[in-house]
Specification:
alpha+beta, Structural Genomics Hypothetical 15.5 Kd Protein In mrcA-pckA Intergenic Region, Chain A, Pseudouridine synthase, 3 domains, 10-stranded mixed sheet, 3-stranded antiparallel sheet, 13 strands, about 25% strand
């Protein structure tokens, strides 16, 4: 079957931009790996020639993309979403405008689906937006621009259009967004502040350079536990949970990295994304998420002060 193509229109604002960034802006559901593969197979080309993903676009360039790629719209879940699921998200909205929603994500609720995930925020969002009157039939209008672990609570940002998704994704990638997390560690951390720099290599790619950096400071501590404020510089998977171990103590309730974890002792991970500052619409959007009730009760029980 012969492949058909469409032309990507290049605006003056996009001149001298990287080709891959222009493509992701116009078609955010195409990830970097898919773009690279499509460039190699000439499903995406410039002036009918193969180019690299970092090619700088000129205003007169003739950019082609296969229609088979353009039609790869994400398919949303057909799971039955209960009213309680929708209410859970609605009650945890901490900021909303026409371009994004910020949630105070509850611990235990996954951001995206998976083989062992019954329901996720990604599943619930279309119904939530439909209830709000911002849903257009058959048109995806929510975009996840970052992630939180299922067990982690706190600020989660969701874009409501392609342009905002592209801008926020770029801000996360270029580390223009500042984040603060609160965590309760099991034990007394000796040093009151500092920076943790490690290698996190979950894919066994034999990385040799430091790629995970977090600043931290101790807000309160005693012989039992420490309340720590983490400011991650990078955003590797499970970074703060692993950096807590670098300080010598796991996060309370961490059933993955705490070797002494017992299910009956503590069912909630005490890691909360509490603050975020985002470059947004020529200003800085400041978000804050209140601590969950279980987190506050643990602070009181352990006599730790904010």
């Amino acid at each position: 079957m012969t492949e058909s193509y469409k032309i990507i229109q290049i605006t003056r604002d996009e001149e001298n931009s990287r080709l891959d960034r222009v493509i992701r802006k116009k078609h955010p559901y195409l990830n970097q790996a898919k773009i690279e593969k499509s460039l190699r197979s000439k499903l995406i080309s410039v002036n009918q020639k193969k180019v690299a993903s970092n090619y700088r676009i000129n205003l007169g360039d003739y950019v082609q993309i296969a229609n088979s790629l353009v039609q790869e719209e994400p398919q949303y879940s057909r799971k039955r979403i209960s009213e309680s699921n929708i209410k859970l998200l609605a009650d945890n909205i901490i900021y909303r405008d026409g371009d994004l929603i910020a949630l105070n994500k509850p611990s235990g609720l996954a951001v995206q689906g998976g083989s062992k995930i019954k329901i996720s925020i990604d599943d619930i969002m279309p119904e939530l937006l439909k209830n709000m009157g911002t849903w257009t039939e058959n048109k995806p209008i929510h975009k996840l621009v970052h992630r939180l672990d299922k067990e982690t609570s706190g600020i989660l940002i969701i874009a409501l259009n392609n342009y905002t998704a592209q801008e926020l994704s770029l801000s996360f990638k270029e580390r223009d967004i500042s984040k603060k997390y609160l965590a309760i560690l099991k034990g007394k951390v000796k040093t009151n502040n500092g920076q943790i720099s490690t290698i996190i290599d979950k894919d066994n790619r034999k990385i040799t350079e430091i790629n995970a950096i977090s600043d931290y400071r101790i807000l309160s501590k005693n012989s039992q536990a420490s309340l720590v404020e983490f400011s991650p510089i990078t955003g590797k998977n499970h970074q703060l949970r692993l950096h807590a171990l670098e300080l010598g103590f796991p996060i309370l309730g961490d059933n993955r990295y705490d070797p002494s974890f017992i299910d009956s002792n503590e069912k909630n991970l005490h890691l909360h994304a509490v603050e975020m500052k985002i470059p947004y619409q020529h200003n800085i959007l400041k978000l804050k998420a209140e601590l969950p009730e279980y987190f506050l009760k643990t602070l009181s029980r352990l006599k730790l002060k904010l």
